[in-house]
């Protein structure tokens, strides 16, 4: 027989609050993933720009790129 002591009730409440935090965390993760998926074009653009920079870096054997790159300067996700 299980006795409902103050400790058992406290632990049950604590466990419940921890589970709720995990559910909220999962919801936030899924929300963030959906947001990223909605902005897939920015990921493609950034990937393309990064590939351009790597190709130019290889082209000049790791030398100075500023005078070669010109327009490829924005790597931010904020637009």
Structure, described:
This protein is mostly helical. The chain folds into 2 domains: 1-38; 40-79. The protein is built from 3 helices and no strands. The longest helix has 33 residues, at 6-38. The model is unreliable at 72-79 (pLDDT under 50).
Keyword list:
79 residues; rod-shaped; single chain; mainly alpha; disordered C terminus
**Alpha-carbon distance between the termini?**
62 Å
Strand content: under 5%
How many β strands by DSSP? Answer: 0
The succession of helices and strands, N to C, reads HHH
The radius of gyration over CA amounts to 25 Å
Query: What composes the largest sheet?
Result: none
Helices and strands: which structural class? mainly alpha
Q: Tally the helices.
A: 3
The level of helicity is over 70%
What order do the helices and strands come in, and which of them pair?
Blueprint: H1 6-38, H2 40-59, H3 66-69
In short:
Helices cover 72% and strands 0% of the residues.
